[in-house]
Amino acid sequence: LCCISSLIGSVIPSRFHKAGSLWWEEPQRRPLSDQHGPRDYMGSAAREVQEGKGSQRYDLPGGVNVLVCRGDITKVNADALVNAANGYLDHGGGVAAALSHAGGPEVQRESHALVRNYGKYATGDTVMTTGGHLQCKKLIHIVGPVQGEANGRERQLLTRSVGSVLKLADENKFQSIAIPCISSGIFKVPISLCAEAIVTAVSDFGSQSQHLKTITLIDTREEVVKALKVAMCEFWLHYPQTLSSSP
């Protein structure tokens, strides 16, 4: 066994790194542009993903910056905040309750008015309301899929839904948006599936953006943030791009 381990070590160059089940090749030690904050290399980024520490920033084609971090979305200052809503826009639990409470009674009042006028919203629907006291111009509500109620199409529906949210924000000329890990809480869709779906939508949108320049993927749960980082790194493996980290 020792001989086999030694042989593997001699075959795989030291520039290759492993975090969990992921392998990638570390690029040449070229410092990142100063405009992207502290200088860093792919090796240290890999360690952060493995340990689930810190925030991570990714620069997508088209000039869109994606920040993955652990935190409270109700404290984020962005043009749009995204709420994981149910079809009745009844913000009684999870991130929906937190955003509604922080935004004040006008958020729930306007949401109920929309349902009275247009009926229950279906999975994948998006709608905007006031953000109330939140630090945003608008609160965008998205009805994510519920585990076991989408005939195995949870990932497809969530990817499409997040894409619709980003398109809506861009059409309204918003420059920044913060998105939680939709459907991974009360709706019980597996965290890894949600992370992959959200990152797919974000990465697909990058080259299409006209106005939206900053996308923050944020959650209070460490395991969710780690899953989002891993999903972003998997995308990075297929589409190499500048990556930097900040404390």
Automatic annotation (TrEMBL):
The organism sits in which domain of life?
Eukaryota
Q: Which residues form the Macro domain?
A: 53-236
> Which PROSITE patterns does the UniProt entry name for this protein?
MACRO
InterPro entries xref list: Macro_dom, Macro_dom-like
Coiled-coil regions listed in the entry: none
Q: Name the PANTHER family on file.
A: GANGLIOSIDE INDUCED DIFFERENTIATION ASSOCIATED PROTEIN 2-RELATED, MACRO DOMAIN-CONTAINING PROTEIN
**Protein's name in the database:** Macro domain-containing protein
